[in-house]
Write a structure and sequence with these properties.
Blueprint: E1 13-17, E2 21-24, E3 27-32, E4 36-41, E5 45-53, E6 60-68, E7 73-77, H1 81-91
Antiparallel strand pairs: 1-2, 2-3, 3-4, 5-6, 6-7
Length: 92
């Protein structure tokens, strides 16, 4: 699947997961479904923390919350979230 990514100059995929997301040496790339693509450069991230996800009642413990320096935040449902959290924290 990493072959389908358009990498920036000098960018390499460092971690690839089955759930359609990649961690490169420069950014998070997340694909949810057919059209949703989210790319977050590590330089734009203020903080990252564990969170729950779900519908109205967010009780599923598979999320990470990425807060950008702009104040905008994203909740991503991922596998191996503690590993991903530690990886991103090292990059920011």
């Amino acid at each position: 699947m990493a072959d389908a990514l358009e990498l920036h100059e000098g960018e390499v995929v460092e971690k690839e997961f089955k759930s359609d997301y990649w961690l490169t040496n420069q950014r998070i790339v997340f694909r949810g479904g057919f059209a949703t693509i989210l790319e977050i450069p590590y330089a734009d991230i203020e903080s990252v923390q564990l969170c729950n996800v779900g519908g109205l009642v967010q009780i599923i413990p598979t999320g990470i919350k990425v807060t950008l320096k702009s104040g905008k935040s994203y909740k991503l449902s991922v596998t191996k979230r503690k590993e991903i959290l530690a990886f991103i924290q090292e990059k920011i």
